[in-house]
Amino acid sequence: MDPKQPARHTRIASVIAAGLAGLSCAAAIAQTATPATPATPATPAAQGLPATPATPATPAVPATAASPAGQGTAPGVTQIQPPKDPLVERREARREAAAEYKAKKKAAKGEYKDEVGAAKQERKVENKAADAAARQEMAAPKQ
């Protein structure tokens, strides 16, 4: 490529896209790279290409009517999830175990704080009673 000649970015982008993602992506990129004019429509059917799922010839279904199985699946078709990596499964299991441990620890800590608070209240009551008895003893007249 001669550095003095200008590069044709739309052609380069479409060639790269065709090499990386296949012919259907190249048509989509070519449509976005060159705007459609009324004289030359940029639909694949108008260019002699077959309609692909990426560029349908019919109007698209609204996003609100997407199937619950997934956005890219047709109605009545379920999408199969690939098996999880053992490391991911182990990480999730550890996360669940840590959450369970934290919940148990929080409950045990709450019980302990309640017991400590109750014991503290008992000591306060006992100390007040002992203090009152000691004051009465000191205030009693000596004979």
TrEMBL record:
Region named Disordered: 33-143
The keyword Lyase belongs to this UniProt entry's keyword annotation: no
Compositional bias of kind Low complexity: 33-69, 130-143
Signal peptide positions on this chain: 1-30
Key word Membrane present: no
Key words, A-Z: Signal
Superkingdom classification of source: Bacteria
Biased composition (Basic and acidic residues): 86-129
Name by which UniProt lists this protein: Lipoprotein
Origin species: Cupriavidus phytorum
Lineage: Bacteria, Pseudomonadati, Pseudomonadota, Betaproteobacteria, Burkholderiales
